[in-house]
């Protein structure tokens, strides 16, 4: 849809703050491919910017928590994130205005650099799993109540809320609800103990950009401190990461033996997210993953 004129005017005012001249939005090109927000590439007299918008009743606060997540990743200093210009609400529309980063072609060493940088990100640790605030993954609330034990966090803050949501919405097979309940008691036996790692939290192929400086830029985070296999597993959910990425990660920060056997276990969380957001075939994918373990 066309960018509303009141929001266009507001963006111009935001971009002009602190400057000596007014700023004009010359063109707003709608970008397609996302399933949650409307997105635009803005050509302005102050340069090119990226704008995400949604309705406040549908999407009341995730842009605020997205900005908090970007700042956590930025502070780690290992992977680039977009600069945030502003975020807020205007007339029932929420928005997030950021620098525009063009997609460049990945060079032959891009995936290896990305893998090493992600391993360095995961070295940033914390005293507990979770975060000091809840945030969002897609449109869904993400509970981050701190826990000392990873298995307890995974059950109470990841699986249980989304299994309940799927059950209440009649999206999940009743037998799979019982399988989750059997799964909970076995998690400590299957998942090796590790320190909490700073995670992107929603690391699939559309949530990074290969920038023209050869670096990976992380976008759309759902950050928390968790088990690093969660990020690695999600990179395999929809593909897009090659062998060099995983080999470089392993060289920089080796994973515990058998991590690939736990990929489907970790991916039960993003599969539940997709089940609750989109329904359809994700119920079968959740069930198939569960049956590998219980």
Please provide a written account of the structure.
- 34% of the residues are buried.
- α3 packs parallel to α8 (243-252) and α4 runs antiparallel to α5.
- The chain has helices at residues 5-16, 62-76, 110-121, 150-168, 174-184, 187-190, 229-235, 243-252, 263-266, 268-278, 282-290, and strands at residues 25-31, 38-44, 47-55, 84-90, 93-99, 135-137, 140-142, 197-199, 208-210, 216-218, 224-226.
- It is 39% helix and 19% strand.
- The mean pLDDT is 95.
- The chain is built from 11 helices and 11 strands.
- With 294 residues, it is α+β, with helices and mostly antiparallel strands.
Short description:
With 294 residues, the chain is an alpha+beta fold. The protein has helices spanning 5-16, 62-76, 110-121, 150-168, 174-184, 187-190, 229-235, 243-252, 263-266, 268-278, 282-290; strands at 25-31, 38-44, 47-55, 84-90, 93-99, 135-137, 140-142, 197-199, 208-210, 216-218, 224-226.
